[in-house]
Request: fold
Amino acid sequence: MISISKPILGKEEKGAVLKVLDSGFLAQGAKVEEFEKKFAKYIGVKYAIAASSGTTALHLALLAHGIKKGDEVITSPFTFIASSNAILYCGAKPVFVDIGEDFNINPDLIEKKITKRTKAILVVHLYGCPAQMDKIMKIAKKYNLVVIEDACQAHGAAIKKKKVGSFGTGCFSFYPTKNMTTGEGGMVTTNDKKIAEKAKLLRNHGMRIRYYHAILGYNFRMTEIAAAIGIEQLKKLEKFNKKRISNANYFNKNIKIKGVILPRVKKGYRHVFHQYTIRITSQCPKSREEIIKTLNKNGIGSAIYYPVSVYCQKPYIKHGYKDHSPVTEKYTREVLSIPIHPSLTKKDLKKIVLVLNNL
Reply:
């Protein structure tokens, strides 16, 4: 079976983990600090704050910026639920803005949703494709809004060589399916010293000095084991990303199916293809369900990211959400992701193309 995703862990990661185990220091320590410094340098920011997951990184970023009950945060309804859940964790209200053809929030629709209570824009760089940050940053500056980037699927994505996670306050995930992994883990990136210090305080029970708690905090710490894996994965990230981009270029050149729209990359944008997501429109002779069955029959994995908008999920219905985002709702019925990970061989790529082109 050609899987939809596959973490790549080698002898380097195994050796790094064994060294940590032999050291006897397993909780947050020197390895976490080393990983933070190296990741900050890679993204091009002054500070990086490691966390236990991408979700806790988002939560930390929002709290560090003072997002609280009664505030509104503009975000996308077409993403994994963690993006919006982190807003709810703070007691704030997610305000959903529909997406564009790049699957990301449509900046042309943002200003209509801004109110006196709007405090931030939480941008999602979905599938590894950068959102339109130039437009979004201008809007944020005009209305004095915080920008938080959910770059959990976009390690190394960039616009004109400026990496996502360096425009506003970045948040990354190192879940096993991501472009690099630590097993579980996350990272907040920022150039703001105050935000970095607040995030560090919040992730460790509000402690500056051991057993002296300055504020109410959380246990969002990363382990030394996770950081050791992350350091080795970061060394390989560019190689992984280049392979993903190469695989995507092969698909774009060779997949030819009536009624299927392939991913498009804007000039100057670096898409790192966490997912290679196609759209199966009504002009396609086969339905999405039929295509999934055919792929599966031929030993090719696939997945729908995402089959339902965030505001249609039960926790949001209970909160009284009755939003309507026509593009989002259309795309939930059309999207299908196929394997794109770096482990794919030339034989795998050719097989995927052959099966799709002969539907």
